């Protein structure tokens, strides 16, 4: 099961084969945000508190396009190869 904080690999889309950490999950729509992946440009209007401009932020990916990376298994494989 995919949870917030898991490391995942992207299986499809423009960021295929990239890895990142899940920062947010939308279970109702089966979507997740991955840190540093699927970046989109957002135009933000300036207010009294915040400066406006164009910012980059993560957008949601479908959970079916993600694969969990098992860190323990990866480390064991490296030890066996040595």
Architecture overview:
The chain has one helix at 71-81, and strands at residues 7-10, 19-26, 31-34, 39-44, 53-58, 61-62, 66-68. It is 13% helix and 40% strand. The protein has a five-stranded antiparallel β-sheet, with no helix packed on it. Strands 4-5 form a two-stranded antiparallel ribbon. With 82 residues, it is mainly beta.
Tell me the layout of helices and strands:
Elements: E1 7-10, E2 19-26, E3 31-34, E4 39-44, E5 53-58, E6 61-62, E7 66-68, H1 71-81
Antiparallel strand pairs: 1-2, 1-7, 2-3, 3-6, 4-5
Brief rundown of the structure:
The protein is built from one helix and seven strands; from the N terminus they run βββββββα.
Biggest beta-sheet profile: 5 strands, antiparallel
Beta-strand percentage range: 35-45%
**What is the tally of helical segments?**
1
Specify the helix fraction band.
10-25%
Number of strands: 7
Q: Could you give the order of strands across the largest sheet?
A: 6-3-2-1-7
Mean pLDDT across residues: 89
Radius of gyration over C-alpha positions, nearest whole angstrom: 16 Å
The CA-CA distance between the termini, in Å, is: 31 Å
Helix-strand pattern = EEEEEEEH
Poorly predicted regions are none
Features:
7 strands; mainly beta; two-stranded antiparallel ribbon; 5-stranded antiparallel β-sheet; 40% strand; 13% helix; single chain; 82 residues; elongated
